[in-house]
Amino acid sequence: MITTQRLTLREFTLEDAEFIYQLMNSPLYIKFIGDRNIKNRDDAKTFLSTKLIPSYQLHGYGLYAVIRNEDKALVGMCGLVNRDGLEHTDIGFGFLPQYMGMGYGYESARAVMNYANETLSLSPIWAITNLQNTASINLLTKLGLLYQQQILWGDEQEPTLLMSTHEFSSVEISSDK
């Protein structure tokens, strides 16, 4: 677990299926991150058991449930991802709409970045985001990530912004997600 003044980050469990269903069907998540085809709680459990939870064993990290300490509300997710086609570990985050704009994104992402650097010795950390997602871009910039280039990644038709904690000249991206 990772703790901050207001938040606790923990590994996801199958009991978090309702949260995953709500988050991944929120309009901003679909617009900026994508439709993960989570149409019911069973789809959410499958996503947890095949995508999120295995990462902890495979890589020693993953996306974490972000819990507000004051009332134990599950407000979002934040963590580290090894994405197919990306050379380095990526920081990712998403929050339920009612918890956006409260600083939870920065607080949890800063804690994840510290964990990645100090505990896991991961460097550089990359991030990818939709070019229109100014809130995400601003948060990544505040964390110290630098604009690198626009890439076509996965099956996306539109370019994606690639940011990194370290500058580099250019990168080859695999077309597989």
TrEMBL record:
InterPro entries: Acyl_CoA_acyltransferase, GNAT_dom, N-acetyltransferase
Domain of life the protein comes from: Bacteria
Gene3D superfamilies hit by this protein: 3.40.630.30
Membrane spanning stretches: none
Listed Pfam families: Acetyltransf_3
Domain N-acetyltransferase: 7-164
Designated name of the protein: GNAT family N-acetyltransferase
